[in-house]
Amino acid sequence: MTTLEITGGQVLKPDMTVEHGDVLVDREAGEILAVGDVPAGDETLDATDGLVMPGLVNAHTHLAMALLRGYADDKPLDSWLREDVWPIEGVLEPDDVRAGAALGALESIEAGTTALCDMYFDVPAVVDAVEQAGLRARVGHGVVTVGKDGDEASADFEEGLAVAREQDGAADGRVSTAFMPHSLTTVDGAELDEFVPKARDADVPIHIHANETRDEVTPIVDEHGERPLEYAAFHGLLNETDFIAHGTHLDATEIDLLAEAGAGVVHCPASNMKLASGIAPVQELLDAGATVGLGTDGAASNNDLDVFDELRDAAMVGKLAADDASAVDAAAAVGMATAGSADVLGFDSGRLAEGKKADIAVLDLDSAHLTPQHDLVSHLAYAASGADVRHTICDGDVLMRDREVLTLDAEQVREEAEERAAAAVERANER
Q1: Under a CB-based contact definition with an 8 Å cutoff, are residues 88 and 119 in contact?
Q2: Cys-Cys with 243: which of 44, 192, 256, 264 at CB 3.0–4.6 Å?
Q3: Would you say residue 431 has pLDDT above 80?
Q4: Starting at the edge strand that comes first in sequence, how are the strands of the sheet with 10-12 ordered?
């Protein structure tokens, strides 16, 4: 056993208290051995003037959409997708997806994210990037059947199942999978009836966009006479391993349904604000006992993958939604970005505790905007950013040391992404 001792810093404990202490990691098992007063490690990582905390968990994103950052802005979701995003995605090649995913992975490591959930296509290319980066991920093929005939739709669903079966356990076990129909309005109920049982047989969770905009709620209510998540449950979704993205427009019945089923909700406040989709009722979800995590969505609608930004947004808009300054407090926001997101994804991480996965970030506190240190949890929620991260560790491996990413060639990743993004735009314009 080779051990890594993270020394000299303060430690964020699972109960959101902070104390001086060290963290000892079993590098081979990728687990935390001890927190606090620990034996000396074989190797050390300096956390002096820093806060050792769980690595952030981005519970809903589309890594490769980093290629589309700034490509199309200032539009509502439906027209943004149909007029801009889907057309250019139609010309992306697997190597484009790999380059975009590598760029997103680089950005994530730099901002202290150690685990994520990615929904996209050309999933093997995404997995390649995740494996090289050293991150933990739950991945899936986003199934969209709008405009496809029966055979094409079935083929897309079959691909989603094949990806879930074939990629599970990749990257030395750091990659898990899910079955990912895109949304309740982009796949048909009959198709869900056919393929959800197959996903259950494959023993993989199901992840889907739901209630993101009013335009995703009204058609289901008008056509079926029930709320979208009631419709989803009727078609076999929403068990305790499943999770939805957004949940912006939920009513009380749906909140209770999520809490009772144990299904997770991934709040994506920045994307929801930028697309004017609405504000999710996060405090109501928390009060009901629902499991809530945080996601950035894609960099095309955010426009970054900094989960620190996301948790600050979550705290801010949560107060507006509840009309209560005490709603979605600092500890709740930090909890959603760490333990909450890990629980949604089924990862044994998000907490600095013995036996948990050694997915860790070290935040540098030696800066003006994090001074004075009255309350470090408050700083995490309201003042810190990804640029403050000094070290990033996943599965016991150091991915970034002193702001230098060790697993990816940052300059090469950025250059390739720039070139492939420009070429993709040119191909899309020629159509």
Answers
A1: no
A2: 264
A3: no
A4: 18-20, 10-12, 50-54, 360-364, 389-394, 397-401, 404-405
43 is in an annotated binding site: no
DSSP state at residue 179: B
Give me the torsion for CA of 269, 299, 60, 12, rounded to 10°.
Answer: -70
- pLDDT of 120 > 90? The answer is yes
Q: pTM of the predicted model, to two decimals?
A: 0.97
| 182 annotated as belonging to a binding site for a ligand | yes
Cα–Cα distance, 8 to 31 (Å, whole number): 20
141 assigned to a ligand binding site: no
Neighbours of 155 (CB within 10 A): 14
Q: How many CA atoms lie within 13 A of 335 on its CB side?
A: 15
Q: Which residue has the higher pLDDT, 79 or 5?
A: 5
| pLDDT tens track for 152-206 | 999 999 999 999 999 999 999 999 999 999 999 999 999 999 999 999 999 999 9
Residue 220 has pLDDT above 80, yes or no: yes
223 is in an annotated binding site: no
395-414 pLDDT, tens per residue? 999 999 999 999 999 999 99
Closest CA to 176 of 345, 412, 369, 394: 345
3-state class of 120 per DSSP?
strand
Inter-axis angle of helices 189-201 and 150-167, nearest 10: 20
Q: What is the distance between the alpha carbons of residues 9 and 364, in angstroms, rounded to a whole number?
A: 9
Q: Is 74 left (phi over 0), alpha (psi -120 to 50) or beta?
A: left
Alpha-carbon distance of 399 to 95, in angstroms, equals 23
**Is 374 assigned a ligand-binding role in the annotation?**
no
Give all domains of the chain, ordered by start, each with its CATH number: 3-53+351-405 (2.30.40.10), 56-345 (3.20.20.140)
User: ∠346-3-49 over CA atoms, to 5°?
Assistant: 85
Alpha-helical runs (H) found in 336-375: 341-345
In 341-421, beta strands by DSSP E:
360-364, 389-394, 397-401, 404-405
